[in-house]
Amino acid sequence: MPIVDVLTEILVWSESLPAWQRDALRRLVVKGELTVEDLDELASICKASFGLAEKCSSEPLAVKYLPERGASMEPLRLKSLTHHDGVNALAKEQTLNFGSSITVVYGGNAAGKSGYTRILKKACRARGAEAILGNVVLDVAPGRPQASIQFDIGAEHEEFLWGDDGADSVSLGRISVFDRHCASVYIAEKTDVAFRPLGLDLFDKLSDACEALRNLLEKERKQLFSPTVPIVANIPEGTAVDNLISHITSLTDADAIKVLAEFTTEDASELEGLRVRLRDTDAEDPVKEAKVLDLRARRMEWMAGHVAKVTASLTDDVIRKTFEARNKMEDSARLSEQMRSNAFDGQPLLNTGSEAWRELWSAAKRFSDTGPYSEQMFPVTEADARCVLCQQELSDEASERLLAFKKFLESALQIEHDKDVRAYRQYQKRFAELVVTNEESNLALDELKVESPEIAEVTGTFLVSAEARCKAVLEAIDEEKECPSDLDAASLSDNILAARVTSLKVRSQELREGKDDKKKEKLQLAIAELAAREQLSENVDAVLNEITRQKKIAAYQLAFEETKTNKITRKSSDITERAVTKQLAKSFASELDALRFKHVEVELTSAGGARGSLFHKLQLKRAPGVSVPKVVSEGEARCLSIASFFAELSTTADRSAILFDDPVSSLDHNWRENVARRLAHEAQKRQVIVFTHDIVFLLSLVDKADELGVDLTHQYLRRDKSGAGVTAKQLPWVAMKVKSRIGFLKELYVQAEKQYRTGNQSAYEFQATTIYGMLREAWERAVEEVLIGGVVERYRKSVETQRASCLCDITEEDCTTLEAAMTKTSRWLPGHDQASAENAPFPEPDELKNDIQGLQDWVDRLRPRRK
Question: What positions does the domain ATPase AAA-type core occupy (predicted)?
């Protein structure tokens, strides 16, 4: 079963798991480990399923989170990675280019290598991908992380714009990554090496999460066992309340408790009335008492009607409409005044059209309609008509004026204004005539105090508030102020008084009917039920808290079931037996052979199951009881991890790119060459990308790639004033081959020659001495690489004796040329002080150029002999 089937089977299996476990698997695949914050969030998801926490969103493991692999897929090859902004201290707009075979990205400490690998690991959804920070040492806030990744899938070219916002590329998930996090999966603990191919380690991590959640849930559950059981005293036995709260469990209906605990003012009044009725059954003169009750009932009935009338007159809606009517009247008055001003400002007398004038007009109209012109419409302006006030004949001008007056008064605006005035006056009159308290209300209130002091108190309070409310409104009306915003509330349920009236009438009727033992017993039962509800209403929170406590205890017990690991262990054992034991053990052994790991005999064996995981461990063949980490070095442990990584790759036919982030370190020097050979060999089948800070490992990769005829692309990372991660195609000088060194020297020569041409002799000589020093180092490199054909090389442990046969063709001319070049370059290299008396002229550019060309010619002459 290939590894992709392991992950797919886990995905299918996860659909039967609780929501929190499915979310936990997603987090483990994405991040590798669960943080304390993750566990808290997962606990909330688990508890929410049982009502122990608020509903919260969860995201299950899905196909998009799994590294995508498949035998039928075209291989994926990375083309380039361009950093745009926001990742660590990387310089902006820097591009790494990747070759189709093996690419080595070299950078020293703080050169920016980690920034690029973090981007790739995030984009490829590598296990344990690290959080990416901006350049936090800048004075300004760092930009949002952003990079673009170019890649090919077969013949198709694609680009992915990556940002640290959660979005990722499914295709890039096909890239396999090896780094220190991945190594820890293969070599889990230093005291017990457990082999877990990608996917299988999810089981024990999920089991760990189950254990962590169970401990958390158990701690919370124990807090519920404090003595908080409520004690509700004086509950009459046999009542509905007593029957319900005597046996509280997690299944007790809280809504039923709340319904019984709803004890209103009306209920209190009813309870009081029932108790009074019970006392009435022992009255000495029932008929006389009934008459008294009838009188009280009539007065309270009047009070109920009075309260209803006052309440209706002082509602917020009525008050609002009153002031709206006033505002509307004032608005129409302004429009009317504007019209009056336009019509009458030119009249001989001031204030024509005013309110006083309109009264005069109305009086004239009444006189005209009932007097001399009763048969004609006022104003009469015909020939010989007279003014009804001055009784003089009307001139043409006077007639026109009267008609204009009539037109104004009969206009739509004026009519609307008159209507608004009447409406407002009606509201105004309503408040002015409202009587809140009078002698009759006082008498009724006194009767109420005898019958029920509590109801009398709330009724009296209502009347006081209503009077203050009415007064405030009237003052605002009289003083033409806005509607008061701080009016006293004035409301009283008419049911309170109505219920009391009914109670009085019932009592009166019962008194007239005489004693009845059955009715008395019925009253006692009703009183008991209401009294029980009253007690419950005073203790309802304690009762509800007890129900909640019982429900929580039951819910925690259900939540515990979701933390059991039996199901996880069974699935882990099943998949591991089918996917790992035979196939990976065989592949692992082959990889150890490829890495020439033979001095310690290690094999991959089954290690049983534990907490949801069936282990395979690396075991010493001859000493199975001895822990492997106690025997192997750190470098050997890393070699075992790399073997495990390649064993895993062998289980799938997908030949997509693989990425190595510092596969070896300085502690692995004995294994550099073997690892380099294995990576170069793998590059014959797929794209291999290696990030390293180890110059010796870099040289080993270059050498092994050359041996196997594998194209090697190299990128050099450095730091300058623009930031880290500045890319260059040239390797550092120490890693360059002779051909590259000669090319680099020619570039430096061009710069130095320019200084000479522009008359800057001192700058030329300074650069030229540097070139001579580097030229001497290039001659030294040419000796080991070309003259002696790589028989012996620095940083390499082996001596290639099979190449020694080529040394026999070294001529005296070869040696003479070499000796002369070394002598001359040594004379002019930096650090050699020239004797004052010698005063030799410094070589001019042509001579320097010829000296560089001399090395080129010498190498070209030897190369054909070394093939």
Answer: 538-697
